[in-house]
Amino acid sequence: MIIRTWHGCVPNLHAQGFSQHLEVTGIQHAEGVPGNLGAFVRQERQGDWTHFFLATYWQDIDAIKAFAGEDYHVAVTYPDDEQFELLSDPYVFQHEVQRIVAL
Question: 62-76: buried (b, 16+ CB within 10 Å) or exposed (e) per residue?
């Protein structure tokens, strides 16, 4: 299994709106691609910013490419992201794992 991780942050005043936006864009988009095994989002507030950490779980690299394209190391962004003043890490990371264990 491959875990794909992304990080971005928005000003606190946009946190609730961006959380809903991320659900409709990143999460539902990923979960609609064959080979996706799920998604998890964590939010952390730090000063004036709320950070979002998204992990999506994939069967294989071909499934990730179906979601993100051939340049799959680049973050997938959406046209409406700008309205939330999103600062997105430009790159994502893929991690091959044998299993997931809750902490």
Answer: ebbeebbeeebeebb
**CA dihedral in degrees (77, 69, 62, 86; nearest 10)?**
-10
- DSSP letter at 29 equals H
The encoded tokens of residue 32 equal 């609609």
Assign 27 to helix, strand or coil.
helix
Domains and CATH numbers, the chain: 2-96 (3.30.70.100)
Pairing of strands 2-11, 49-58: antiparallel
pLDDT tens digits in sequence order for the chain, 103 residues long: 999 999 999 999 999 999 999 999 989 999 999 999 999 999 999 999 999 999 999 999 999 999 999 999 999 999 899 999 999 999 999 999 888 777 7
> What pTM was estimated for this model as a whole?
0.91
